[in-house]
Amino acid sequence: MTVITETKLEFAKLGSRIGAEIRGLDISGDLSQETVAQIRAALNEHKALVFREANILSDEAQVKFASHFGPLTKAHPTVASVEGEENVLPVDSENGSANNWHTDVTFVVNPPQASTLRSIDLPAYGGETLIASSAGAYQDLPEELRNFADTLWAIHTNDYDYSVPKNLEHSNAEERRKEFTRLKFETAHPVVRVHPLTGERGLFIGGFAQRLRIVGLSNTESKDIIRLLQAYVTRPENVVRVNWEPNQVVLFDNRITQHYAPDNYDGQPRKLNRVTIAGDIPVGIDGKPSQALQGDSSTYSVVAPLAAS
């Protein structure tokens, strides 16, 4: 009797704390349960995976790949999707750069568990994506600061002051902001989130907490504390710098990372497409779940059961 065994996927580490890549793995078709399980295990370990020569050449194929890891969200709670593809968000330099550290859509009560990005148009230089491990940041905190962070909750919102100098604003920034805030969301999340699959603790802050309000503290106190904690997230040893190639997909764990797209390509076209996988409601170390304060995100995303994630 012939026994067919699954090939073990070999991901090469990109850094000691975050990031791994694999080249030549065709992820465009039907993936076996074993392959999906191996990718999930690698994601749990490395938090960001780079698939080079991935053979995903269409939105349909990207949606199919992302669907292996759970139900999908709509493209975005407020921003328009790619025409005819309700799950696909264009990340296009024509609409500005996401050059601030953030975790995707944390202003809703159940942010995506993971995000996929696919290269479409790339500049001749620059245009990388930086991804940071918030678990590494939490581990780096001095014990006293870690214990303090464990007790904190922060307000995340899509309606905040971006504080971008006028000379650095994109030409259609005002129109994009109106679209982004046409529905307003506000959610209280634990500053320290427990990952539901690994049990790791990570700092759950980033761009949409830029309203800089810690529950129970003043705005000034909140700004200082979040600035202090955020500095640990973006320490170089916690960051992987992903260089883009044609036919490339990146999958990262939105529960325990932040990311940043530096505007370092001199106005050249840069376009990626994003598909996100529905997530659960975050919980803090005491098991208390996040609370929606404003906005109904149910039409954007289901609350994904952990068994499906």
Automatic annotation (TrEMBL):
Domain TauD/TfdA-like, residue spans: 11-276
The UniProt record lists the keyword Heme: no
Annotated InterPro entries: AtsK-like (IPR051323), TauD-like_sf (IPR042098), TauD/TfdA-like (IPR003819)
GO CC, one annotated term: cytoplasm
Cofactor: Fe(2+)
Gene Ontology molecular function: metal ion binding; taurine dioxygenase activity
Source organism, top-level taxon: Bacteria
EC id: 1.14.11.17
Pfam annotation, one family: TauD
Gene3D superfamilies: Clavaminate synthase-like (3.60.130.10)
Alphabetized UniProt keyword annotations: Dioxygenase, Iron, Metal-binding, Oxidoreductase
Protein family according to the UniProt entry: Belongs to the TfdA dioxygenase family.
Protein name stated in the entry: Taurine dioxygenase
Gene from which this protein is expressed: tauD
